[in-house]
Specification:
Number of strands: 5
Largest sheet: 5 strands, parallel
CATH topology: Rossmann fold
CATH superfamily: HUPs
Strand order of the largest sheet: 3-2-1-4-5
Radius of gyration: 17 Å
Number of domains: 1
Oligomer: single chain
Distance between the termini: 61 Å
Shape: globular
Helix content: 40-55%
Number of helices: 6
Order of helices and strands: EHEHEHEHEHH
CATH architecture: 3-Layer(aba) Sandwich
C-alpha cells in the first residue's frame, strides 16, 4: 500500500577495497545493517590500487567472517563501474563512510557521478570518532613496522596480518 510517502530504501551497497577491513569499516557495516533490509559489502577490484596486501578471496573471507553476525549483510566483489554494479544488484543507495572533511571532498564528485549514471543516491555515515584516523593504508604501515593494531582491526584480520607477515618473512 502506497500512501504518498517515499518508499523506504531497502538495499544498500557499501563499496571499498577493504585491504584490510578495519573496525571503522565494520562500524559502518553494522550501522548500515541496522538501517537497511539488505547490505551488500562489495569489494572493489580497483586496478589503480597497486599490489594490494590481500587477495580478493582473502578480503572477501575476512569480511564474511567479520560480518557473520549480521544476517542481512552479504559480501561480494565487482570490477568496473560502481554505477553499473548498483544497477546489476538493484541497490537503492550507496553507503560511504567519512572519517575527515577531506573524505567528503573526495567522495562528493563520486556521489554526483554515480547518481548521474545510476540514479542512486549516496548516503554518508560519519565514522565513529574512535576510528576517524584509521585507514587500511595506515593499519598496514603500522603493522608491517611492528606496531600494535589490535584495537583497530577485528581478531580475524589480525590473524590474516600475522600469516601475511610470516609468509613475507617479516617476523
Amino acid at each position: 500500500m502506497h500512501n504518498g510517502s517515499p518508499q523506504k530504501k531497502s538495499h544498500a551497497i557499501y563499496p571499498g577495497s577493504f585491504d584490510p577491513p578495519t573496525n571503522g569499516h565494520l562500524d559502518v557495516i553494522a550501522r548500515s545493517a541496522s538501517i537497511f533490509t539488505t547490505v551488500t559489502v562489495a569489494v572493489v577490484v580497483n586496478p589503480q590500487k597497486r599490489s594490494p596486501l590481500f587477495t580478493l578471496d582473502e578480503r572477501e573471507d575476512m569480511l564474511r567472517r567479520c560480518t557473520s553476525a549480521h544476517s542481512n549483510v552479504r559480501v561480494a566483489h565487482f570490477r568496473g563501474l560502481l554505477a553499473d554494479y548498483v544497477k546489476e544488484i538493484d541497490a537503492d543507495v550507496i553507503v560511504k563512510g567519512l572519517r575527515v572533511v577531506s573524505d567528503f571532498e573526495n567522495e562528493m564528485a563520486f556521489a554526483h557521478m554515480n547518481r548521474s549514471l545510476s540514479n542512486v543516491d549516496t548516503m554518508f555515515l560519519m565514522s565513529d570518532s574512535a576510528y576517524s584516523f584509521v585507514s587500511s593504508s595506515l593499519i598496514k604501515e603500522v603493522y608491517l613496522q611492528g606496531g600494535d593494531i589490535a584495537k583497530y582491526v577485528p581478531d580475524v584480520v589480525l590473524e590474516y596480518m600475522h600469516h601475511k607477515r610470516q609468509a613475507q618473512g617479516r617476523i
